[in-house]
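hey can u check if this looks right to u? its 146 residues, i copy pasted from the old doc so theres a chance i mangled smth
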Amino acid sequence: MAVLAKIRQRSALMIVVIAFALFAFLVPSLFDKGNFGKNSTNVGSINGKNISFEDFRIKVSNVEKSQQGVTSTAAANRVWDQEVSIALLTAEFDKLGIRVGEKALLEVLKSDQNIGKNPIFLNSAGILTKLNLKNISSQIRNKHRF
């Protein structure tokens, strides 16, 4: 009972302390890049590169469609981990001066069963060529423009 009496005597001080704590919690948001009250179009930033919400949402949707039974949270985590890996590896590759040439990329695509053995990507002789890949990628771009 004595403790409650002490708290009642100092209730104004308690209110001031609580108000100060709430204010201190909100102050950093006021000065955070001037974005207080504004909606951000970015999900996050990795090494200074912003990840847009729309691109992230599309990638998460693609993961959910391609992997049946995966939850939205698991799909979002996979996409985020992939974005982090890509950003960090790209930065390291740039720093080290590592580049992938067209020949190496074409060899990787040829060895992939989904692309290298797929008749859609092969020419009349049954060979995957750079020209076929360019034609198919331009068809896909034109199909998805509208």
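The first helix runs from residue 2 to 9.
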